[in-house]
Please model this.
Amino acid sequence: MNSWKEFLEQERKEDYFVKLMEKVDEAYDNGTVYPPRDEMFSCFDLCPYENIKAVIIGQDPYHGAGQAHGLSFSVKPGIKTPPSLKNIYKELKSDLGIDAPKHGYLASWAKQGVLMMNTSWTVTEGKAGSHKKFGWAKFTQRALDILNNYDKPLVFILWGNHAIDAAKGVTNPQHLLLKAPHPSPLAGGGFFGTKPFSQTNDFLKKNGRGAIDWQIEELDK
Model:
């Protein structure tokens, strides 16, 4: 496996994926679905296979208007920063002393090798978890199987039980799994002080992969 394009081409031939896409297409045709169809796999577009250093696993795309664009935890420019991401920014400040930007657009992380994927890749507007039973779990598992066999050490940043469960098949000892409570204010705490950003960079540097610059620049007005 040399590219996400190759991965997607392989999956498109599988019966489960054909059935999954039939359900997804029907949802897009009959209602408002996020992210926009052409951004469904944008985490792959923004983080090419050969560049991956770290993986952040989210659950569902944001289901509010204009939020989701295919990167877990990220929102489009001009959209209010969601509560979970605000807490991620607080931990970033505590861990590395990096100030939060005034936006929630995380594409700069993706372009440096942080794959930000959800386990459900689409959602109907206003209905969290609405596509969970479409068959996305199998697709996600296939992607994680590919990542488990990646030829260089990766860091899997797993926030919350959902992400931890999704990554149960990541067993390759060359990878680092960082497990912590979910950053959501509704998750009951325990996220702050887990230092995922410094731990990720320490591991990457130790393995000759180069640190990630977690600083997010302000967007041009």
